[in-house]
Design a protein that fits this description.
The complex is a heterodimer of chains A (395) and B (309).
Chain A (H helix, E strand, L loop, with lengths): L1 H27 L8 E10 L6 H20 L3 E2 L2 E11 L4 H13 L4 E4 L3 H14 L3 E3 L15 E3 L4 H14 L5 E6 L3 H16 L3 E7 L8 H8 L5 E5 L2 H13 L5 E4 L6 H7 L7 E5 L9 H12 L6 H18 L4 H5 L7 E2 L4 E2 L11 E8 L2 E9 L7
Parallel strand pairs in A: 1-3, 1-4, 4-5, 5-6, 7-8, 7-9, 9-10, 10-11
Antiparallel strand pairs in A: 2-3, 11-14, 12-13, 14-15
Helix pairs in contact in A: 2-11, 3-4, 5-6, 8-9
Chain B lengths: L1 H31 L6 H22 L5 H28 L7 H23 L4 E2 L8 E4 L2 E4 H23 L1 H11 L1 H6 L4 H27 L1 E2 L3 H16 L4 H25 L9 H15 L14
Antiparallel strand pairs in B: 1-4, 2-3
Classes of the chains: A alpha/beta (395), B mainly alpha (309).
Amino acid sequence: MNTPRILKSAAFLLALVVAAVACSKKDNATTAVTTDEVIVKIGSVAPLTGPQAALGKDNDNGARLALEEINASGLKLGGKKVKFELMSEDDQADPRIATIVAQKLVDQHVAGVLGHLNSGSSIPASKIYFDAGIPQISPSATAIAYTAQGFKTAFRVMTNDRQQGKVLGEYAVKKMGGKRVALIDDRTAYGQGLADEVAKAVKASGGEVVAHEFTTDRSTDFLAILTSIKGKKPDVLFYGGMYPQAVPMVKQMHSLAMKTRFLSGDGAQTADFVRLAGTDAEGTTASAPGLPLESMPGGRQFKEKFTAKYGVIQNYAPYAYDAAWAMVEAMKKADSTEPAKYLAELPHVTRDGVTGPISFDERGDIRGGAITIYQVKNGAWEVMETVMGDAAQPK
Amino acid sequence: MDILTQQLINGLVLGSVYALVALGYTMVYGVLELINFAHGEVAMVGAMICLAVIGGLVESGVGLNGISIVLLGLAAAVLVCMVLGFVIERIAYRPLRRAPRLAALITAIGVSIVLQNVAMLIWGKQYISFPPLLPVVRYELGGAVVTNFQIFIFLLSCALMAGLFLLVKKTHLGRAMRATAQAQDVAGLMGINVNTIISITFVIAAALAAVAGVMVSAYYGLAHYYMGFLLGLKAFTAAVLGGIGNIAGAMLGGLLLGVIESLGAGYIGPLTGGFLGSNYQDVFAFFVLILVLIARPSGLLGERVVERA
């Protein structure tokens, strides 16, 4: 009775092992050579499910658009035609899943990674890419810490939060009459980092931080913290976080009859914020790194190409597009898709991107970089002012 | 003082929604001893159906006023969710009724994931906004502000809870449900159609969840395929807090959880000297839950100690 069962299990195990070997063989053949064409895998990581799925899909499509164009252009590297394949992965905006996904991409021998979308997931993942020697360009991670770890593989094409926070804090005090400023952040690397920079700038400009409350990037109910903030009578409330929280937050501010003005960063400066918050969005002020899409050198063209294929641009798609192009530019310079070879060229890349000139400083931050302040007027984001700056400037 | 009043109002409104969803958990647990983890997703489907109907009606330009459009959406959501509740029980749980408890529990989690993903495929990953059909009216109440939405949510939840309570305690059907909960086989021998009673329980629970889902989406102005997860988790906590299987317990647990969360988020910072921030709002609620479970393992109003997987 027992023997056949053992035999069966042994056979099953054997089958498993064979299958695993077969699979791993397939995996190893990353650059499956079909005579004269090389397939190169590029990872793209963003939250494709969960509350920020819409933003994640946006980034993913931006990268996809760039790689499709490059494939169509018939690029040749090292004498062989290169075909890029986008490996889209979902990190759910969760730092823990981000590291799992990063390891998966490393195991699949991707040549480079475009992502992640969130600072909170880009930072832990960057260690894994660094250890594997795989270049990573984040389209949208803005937390200072991302490039401050000394990882030579970590780059970004968006201005960091040191400058964004400074501009926001000064704007709150000087332009919005914010003598008393309250802060809420979502305790992510991005939200917390930005709120802390805003707090510094508010104090430096002569304002006072009267409250600093916290939430999470999954919450929808803020009445409790808004109530305790309302009691401190601030002029301006700054939220460091993403739009899925900013929308119910402004709505609840109105239902509490708060007169406080609402200010946020690029996480809330999205088309969806205005669509979802409706009339409650009116008067909301928010910043975003870089120029407004219409003022970007290639903004109009990009919008046409993107909307024809994927619909409305949420936010960071042009940056994902530029990140992909910057990576390929370095590959061209090195005439190779080997991470070790083209990584050396990445710091020397210069390119007129859709979002502006792309070049990196010694930390991997983008040089130059502007911050634009927007306000919702009549149901649309309107540009208030653009502050030109140099993100590369050390503190 | 007005801040305290405001926090209590916030908490009671939030708590009444939790209570409504918690009733579904507790009713199903009562008759089947199954924790129906798909319950939060049923609320999400309710919100989505309501928004789809509202969107369709607004676009078609039917000359209805805001309130009747919302009521039609709500009615559609309740009907669809009742069917959904029936189907879930029939397909996913009934074949497993004699199986080990763990199998049914894992199936429940599976149903929850399936519903989430189906909703994502149908309605997409985008947030859907609740159209501003109903004007927000604010009332001052001793320094605190209450909106018409909040009053409506609280009153409707209380009315539904009272209705359910009467149904279970005073009617024939309710007696059959209680009998089924006590001993399925014996109830069957007494001439109660156990299958029908269990189906009815699921249908009622789903209807309550649909109402809760619609209220949540109208209140926050947003709906999303993911919204059922946290709502379900909080309501489950409320049900356990009050004593799972006990209907009055679910109501008490829900209201209590809402108030604890509200006060916790409002006062945890000052109370701990800034050591713990308001992001510990959820932790605070679970902390209270743990304390209650240590002191009273069967929950606040629970009658029997439950020891099943």
